[in-house]
Amino acid sequence: MVYKLYYALGSASMGVRVLLEEIGTPYELIQTTINRTEDRPREQMMLNPNGWVPVLLWDNRAMYECAAITIFLCDRHPEAGLAPEVTTHERGLFLQTLVYFSNSVQNAFQLNYYPDRFADTPASEPSAQQRGNRRLRETWSIIDDQIGDNIWVLGDRFSATDIYLFMLTTWLDPSRGHPHISEFPNVKRIADAVMIRPSVQHVYAQWISDQSETQA
Ligand SMILES: N[C@@H](CCC(=O)N[C@@H](CS)C(=O)NCC(=O)O)C(=O)O
Fold it and tell me: Which domains does the chain have, with CATH numbers?
């Protein structure tokens, strides 16, 4: 069985690809776009009428929503050790954090990147964007406090939540008024540690090289 993943650079599908790399399972990418002025493949629109990526396919099945795909893949591949087992205390924090990432942190990004989905008129879009930026600061601060002195998001053990966190940090863009990652030192510490993993170096090669050019 080979997973297939609707994939676009810069999107949440990159986090799912890192997971597939970490699991070490075969997969194929189906290139698509997140540019809303371009058409997406008809099959993608049928599988996810929202038009978003990621969409994961396997055994003639498909699912979307990045956090759900993350949990699904971790559960299907327990040998990869990317999620606490269901009977452990950490499982609660694992689920809580992924859902918070998805419905609060990602939502704040959406307000800034896609204000037309939240504002009633074009004139009110800048207000939605600014609220998104404040919401980014609020939600990342909550995650930063939650992490505290932990080595990884869940404590001593690396998990899929660390990959998800890294993916979300790559969307922080101070030129859009987003907070700078350095405002969240615990988040930054984990993002830096995730970035050196071979899976991330492979999937995010272009982004990592762009970052080092910007910082040079
Ligand atoms: N809740 C969805 C959101 C996915 C999402 O927003 N994907 C973006 C890229 S990161 C996308 O496909 N954007 C194109 C569009 O909104 O049309 C998830 O977590 O999977």
Answer: 3-80 (3.40.30.10), 90-215 (1.20.1050.10)
